[in-house]
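Q: Can someone sanity-check these two? First one:
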Amino acid sequence: MSPMLRLVLIFHNHQPIGNFDSVCEQAYQDSYLPFLEVFEQYASLPIALHTSGSLMEWLSARHPDYLDRLARMVAAGRLEIVGGAHYEPILTMIPSRDRIGQITSYAEWLSDRFATPINGLWMPERVWEQSLTSDLVDAGVRYTLLDDFHFKNAGLEESQLHGYYITEDDGKLLAVLPGSERLRYMIPFRGPEETIAHLRDIAAQQPGAVVFFGDDGEKFGSWPGTKEHVYQNGWLRRFLDALVANQDWLRIVMPTEALDNVPPLGRVYVPEGSYREMTEWVLPVPRLVAFEELQHRLEHEGRWQEVAPFVRGGYWRNFKVKYPETNEMYARMQMVSRRLHEMVSSGKRPRKSGSNGSSRSGSSKDHAAEQSLLDRARMELYRGQCNCAYWHGAFGGAYLPHLRNAVYQHLIAADNLLDAAQGRGLAEGNPPWVELTSDDYNFDGRPEVCLASNRLLALISPPHGGHIYELDVRSICHNLLATLTRREEAYHHKIRAGESAQQGDVASIHDRVVFKQADLDKRLVYDRHRRKSLVDHFYPLDTQLASIVDGSYEELGDFVTGPFEAKLRRNRDRMQVQMKREASVADNTIRVTKGVTLEAGEQTLEIAYLLEGLPPGVLFHFGVEFNFAGLPADAYGRHFYDARRNSLGHLGTQLDLLDCDSIGLVDEWLGIDLELKSARPMHLWTFPIATVSQSEGGFELVHQSVVVQPRWFVRGDEQGRWSVTMTLAIDTSAAENHPRVAEMVAMV
C-alpha cells in the first residue's frame, strides 16, 4: 500500500491594532465563531491555528469562552497553536531585539493560556529575509510557513515542494514549510472536489508527500461574499466531509506531527520576498503598471506559466519609499525602540530631583515601579509595530487613518512611559521641561529637528521645506500630522474605466472590482507636495480656492519643498528652531525666515514669519499651509468655529474667509480643541483631503486630513520686510478630564 499523503491546514486569524471594535466583532460573528462551530463537529480532523496577539487580546476581553473552546481542542489533540510575533509586525522591519522579544513574549502567553508548547511561527505577510533564521531559532521557533513562491525563487520546481526543507543561518537550523499558492486560490473559492482532485494527483505522483496550506481565516466568512458561500451554501461542510471521506489515502495532520514523522526534503536558502501579490504591490506605480501589462500579454499568449517561476517583483522594505508616511512611522518606532534599549542597557536607575533640587536614589519600591514602566513601554512599542498600517495592497493598510493613528498612539504612549520612568512624565508633581535636538530622525541622510516638551513633540524637516511632519499631543497620544498624501495608484485605471464587479462565483479579493461610492473617478486628485504643516506658498494674486482644491493652481516660488538652513536656539524654558531660505518668486529674490518656539509645560506652538527682499510697491500672495489629521469630516461633534466660537460647519467644509483673526477646530470625541490665531488679520482657506483607495471591500473614498491655510496679500515696508506671528494653541482639557484619560495620565 502506498504511503498516505499528509495535508497540513494552518489558519491565520488577525485583526490589527486600532481596528474598530465593530469590525472585530463582525469578523468574529462571520468567520471565527462559525468556523469553530462547524469544525468542532469533525473529531477526526486536526488543524493548526495562529491568532495574532492583537486579536487574542480582543477575544480574551470580549469572548473568553471562544478561547476556552480552543483550549479544549488543544487538550483533545485536535488543535496545534502556532505562535508568532506578539503584535504581528513585519519581522524584517523591527530591530532584532524586538523580534526576539515579541516572539518569546507571545509564546509564553500562549503556552500559559493553552497549556501547550509553541513550536511554530506564523510569518507576518510571509515577508522573509534569510537572516531572520538566527533570531527565530534564538526565540525558540522550530518551524515557519512561507509561500511556495519563496521556494520557486530559490530555483525549486512545483514537484519539489510537497514536503518541507531545512534552512540555516550562522549554524542555526529552522524548518521552512512551503504553503501552496494553488490551494490558496482554490480554498474556499472553488468546489471541494477540485481540491481533492488536485491532492489525489499529488498522491499518485509522489506517495508519502506532505502538502501545506496556510491562509487567512477571514477568507471563511469576512471577505466579501464568503459568509454566504462558506456557511449558508455549505462549502465548509462539504470540504470537511470530503477530507473525511478520503481518509483512506489522505491524512490531515498538524505541523509538528509532520515534522516529527517525515524527514526534510533537503536544505534550501530562501531569497528575500513575500507572497507573490505583495511583491507586486510594492513596485513603483509605473513599474507595476508595466508588470501587469506584461503579465496580461503573456497570459493571452499562453506563455505566462512558462516564465512566471523566473519573475520576481519588488522588495518589501521599499514600501517605506513608496509611502513616505510609513517611513515616518517606522522612524518614530525606531526612535522609541532605541530609547528603550538604551535605558535598559545602561543598567542605571534614574535619579530624581528632590524638593530642594538635590538628587536622590530611589528605593527598591521605586526601582520596581520604574521596571514596571519599562515593561509597559515595551508592550506599547510592540503594539506600535503592528504591520498593517505600514504597507498597502489589496487591503486598506496605510490608507486607513485609524490604523496609522493607532500606531502613533502606542508609540507616543511608550515614549510617555519612558519619560515617566525618568521622573519627567505627565503626572502631577513632575517638573515641566523642553528640549531641542537635531539628528537624522527619518533616515534620509539629512538632519531633522526634534522640538519636544512634556506636552508636545514636533519633528521638523528643514531640508524639506521646513515642514513640521509630526506633531504629537502627548496627553492624548495623538499625532496631528499622521497625514497621507494623495498619489497615483496602479489600480486607479480601473476606477477611470469604471470596471464593474465580477458576477457569478464568489471571487478572491485580488480579483474583485467593487465601487463603494459613486463618481470616484472625479475624486482622483494628486498632491504636488506632502500634506504637512508650515508649507509655504506664493500664489498669483487672483488664485481662488477652487484651484487649490482641484490642484490646478500655479506656484510662483519654490519654498514648498526647498531646503531651509536651520539654527537652534536654546534657553532653559524656551526653545526655538529658526529656518531661513532665499529663493526666487516671480523673478524676485525673497528670503523667508520662520521660527517655531515651544515653552516648557505649554501646549502652544508660536510660529513667526519674516519675509525680506520684497520689492517696493509689489504685492505678493503668501500662504502657510497647515494639515491636521485624525479629525474626521462630516461627523457629529467635529467642527470649525470662529473667534466667538460660532460653528462654521463640520471639518470637511470648504471655507473661504476674509479678514479674520483666528479659526478653531474641535473634535469632541477625541477631546481636542485647536485654535490658530494670527497677530495680523488673515484670509483663510479650509478643505478636506480624501484619498481614493482600495480595500478588501472595494474602492472607497477615505478622509485623511483637514487643510487650514491662512494667507495674506503682502507688501513690504520701507526695508522690504513683512512679518506675522501665529500661535497654534492645543487644548486637551476635555480629554484629560475624562476619567479614562485622567487615569492614564496619572499612571505615567
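And here is the second, same format, sequence then C-alpha cells:
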Amino acid sequence: MERSIQKIGVINWIILLVVGAGSALVGRYAATATGTVGAALVGIGFLVAVVSFFQMRLEERERLEKLEYEELRKARSSGTLFSETEADTFPARRSREQFEKYLLPLFTALLFLLQGGAVWWFWKWLGKAAPPGLDHAPIAMALYALFALILFLLGKYSSGLSRLDGQRLLRPGAGYLILGACICFLVAGTEAAAFFGFPKVDFFVAYGLCFVLGLTAVETLIGLVLEIYRPRVKGQAARLLYESRLIGLLGQPGGLITTAAQALDYQFGFKVSETWIFKFLKEAMLLIILLQLGALFLSTMFVIIEPNEQGLLEHFGRPAGAHAVLEPGFHFKWPWPIDIVYRYQTRQIQSFIVGEVPDPDLDKDRTVLWTRPHFKSKEGEGSEMPGMLVASRGQIARTDTNEKAVPANLLTVSIPFQYQITNLLAWAYNHANSDELLQELANREVVRYLVNVDMENIMSSGRLGAAEEIRRRVQARANEAKLGVNIIFAGLQDIHPPLGNKRTPVAAAFGQVVSAVQQKQTNHLYALAYASEKIPSAQAEATNILAQARNAAVTKVALAEAEAARFTNQITAYEASPSVYTQRLRLDTLARSLEPVRKYVLTATNTQDILILNLEEKIRPDLLGGVILPPEATKSGTMNK
C-alpha cells in the first residue's frame, strides 16, 4: 500500500510538470493571459508535489526503520546491542526531523517569494498583454479540456486516498491537481468567450487568478509566521507548512460543509446538521445550483432594448438575416451563446472631439481666456499641445535678416463633432472600430482644411462657413467609407493661438495685436460717426439760418408796404371827414386797450355800495370756456359778474 501511495505521489508531480509545461506552451500559442497565469499556478503545484513526495519518502524510511528496530529488539533482548545514542540508532528519523526543521521553512519562504513575485509580475504584464488570438482558439479549447479531464480524474483519486489515515502528504498535490483542472476549464471557457466575441473575459479571469495567487501568498506568509509561535506537542503531527488550506478546499469540499454544520450546531445549541432540511440541502445542493444555472441560462432568451437603442442580433456569430436589427422593446431569442445581442446608442446624439479635450473642471467658468490653460493635461506634456498648422497670408518678413516669411501658423484647436448612427449594420460590420475610424477621418479632414485656409479668416467672419465645410467634408469621407453615420454638427468655437510659455506668450501677444486692430477699427468708425453727425447738422443749421433770413426779409418788406398803403388810406379818410376819423380812431384804440382789462358795471345810482376789488390775476378765460353751470346756480344769482 505504501509503495502504491508513493507511486501516486510520483505520478502527481509528473502530471503537474507535464500539464504545467503544456499549459504554458498552449497559452503562448493561443496568446491567452488566463492560460499563462494558470500555468504559473500549476508550476507552483509541481514544486509543492515534489517536496511532498520527498517528505513522503523520508517518512516511509522512518517507518521502515521503526519496523526493523522492533524486529531486532524482539530477536535480541540484550540492551547492550542498542547502547548507542538515539541519533545513531534512528538516522532516518533524524533526517526527517532535520528536513522538517530547516528545509521546510526555507522552502515555504521561497514559495512565498515565488508567489509574491509572480503576482507582481503578472499584474504588470496583464496591463500590456494583447487580446487572445481567434485563429488558435478551437485547438486551445480542446487541449485545455483534455488537461482539465486528466487533472480532475487524478486529483479526485488522490484526494480520496488522502482521506485515509496516514496519507496526509497526498493532500497538497491533490489540491493543486483539482485547482489545475478548474484553471484549465476556465481557460477553455475564456477561449470560447473570445471566439464568440468577448476577448475581455480572458483578462478578467486572469486578474481573478492573480488575486487567488495573491491570497495563497498571504496564507503562506501567515502560516510561516504562526509556525514560529506554534506550541509543539510531542507525538502530534503538525500540519504541513507548505499546504494551502484555501486550495485544499477544492480537493475536499465536503470539509467546508462539515465545518459550516459544526458552526451552526454550536451557534443554535442543538444538532442543526441532523435536521431533515439541512440533510436535504446537503444532498440537493448540487441540484439547486444546477437549477439556478439553468434559470440563468434560460434568462438569456429574453432581451429588452431601451428606447434610445437598437440591438444587433447575431446567430452563431453571424447577423440573423432580416431580423438582425432589433428595435426598442421586448424580444425573444435563442439562449446564449447561440444568439448574442449587441446594443448600440443609435437614437442618441454621440460626440467626439478633434484636437484638445476641454478640462471638465473649467467648464463652470463663465469666461475662458486664451492666456490661461483650459484643456486636459497630457502625460509628459504641457497643458496644451502646440496645435495644428494653418495658412497665414499676413506673415511679414523680418527686415533685419534675410529670412523669408513662412506662410503658415499654429492654432490650438478643439472641434466637437456630433453624429448619429443611421445604418447599424454598416456601422457594426463594415469596419472593426467604426468610432475610431470616424475620429481619424475627421482629424484628417480638419488638418487638410486648416492648411488651406487663412488664419485671420477662420478666426473671424469665415468661422461659420468653415464649420459647415468641415462637416460636409467629414460626411463625404464617412459616406465613402460606408460607416452609416450622419454628421450633425461641427463646431469651431474653441480655436485660438497656442498658449506659449513665459518667454514667448503667443496667445497674449496675439491678443494685443487683435486688440490694437479692433481699437483702430473702433477709432475709424467713431470718426465716421462724428463726421456723419456734424456735417448734416451744420448743413441743416445753414439752411435754417438762410430760411429765417429770407422770411425776415419778406416780412419786413410786406409790413413796410402795408404800413405805406395804410398811411395813404388814412390820409384819404382824414381828408374826407377829420372829426369822424379822429373820433373813430380814438374809440378803436380805447376798445383794443380795454379788451384785456377786467371791468365792473354798476347799474344802480341811488345806493351806497361798498366795492371790494379783487386785484388777483384773472383765471384764463379759455380754461372756463364751454363750462355749463346748473340752472339752480343761474337762478340763485350767486354767480359773480
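A (reply): Looked at the second one. Residues 78-85, 378-385, 396-401, 636-641 have pLDDT under 50 and may be disordered. Residues 351-393+406-499 form a domain with the Tetrahydropterin Synthase; Chain A fold (CATH 3.30.479.30).
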